[in-house]
Design a protein that fits this description.
single chain, about 190 residues, mainly alpha, 2 domains, two-stranded antiparallel sheet, two-stranded antiparallel ribbon, 4 strands, about 40% helix, globular, disordered N terminus
Length: about 190
Amino acid sequence: MMIRKATAGLAAALLAAGCSAPKDAPNPDEPAVASLPGAASASAAPSGKAGDAVVDRQLRLGATDEEIDRAYAAYYACWTAHGVPSTKRGGVDGGPLLTYKLNPKKYQPAVDACADREPLNPPELDPQQNPDYWDNLRDELRCVREKGLPLQIVPGQQGLWVRPATDANYRKVRTDAAVQIQRDCELQAYAKTR
């Protein structure tokens, strides 16, 4: 799954708007759970200077939402400390990530300054570190499909993707029960590579 993956390319995947999707609908080209890593808004980030919080950026397989949120809050706090303010759109705080996406050229130096704080996917979820990654991903896919989730592998892309990419399917995979199914299937599929 791309949970901690929303992190390879997370900044590109999160908050991307699909051309035909409604304003608040997820992007059909976004991994199924890419929204989990950056779900914490900047308001959840610790206040203060970039060096205030010491958080392990290496996420572990099976990390809780709280662990993921803590790692991303520290990362986005670094962005804020380097001058990326939070942006609100439609009354919702999009945090510094939305600000960056609205003007990447202006804020890229701040993002670059924080590169050493970006959370890292568990090694098991990295095809470059896990030689069994694609087999594990197929095992994960079998598991989530057996439980009725509309996910599939997209050739050339890491993680599982919502297909068909409809609003109903996105809502289905983002329920608490579906997120737990995805987490359980991910653990079951990748734990055997440890």
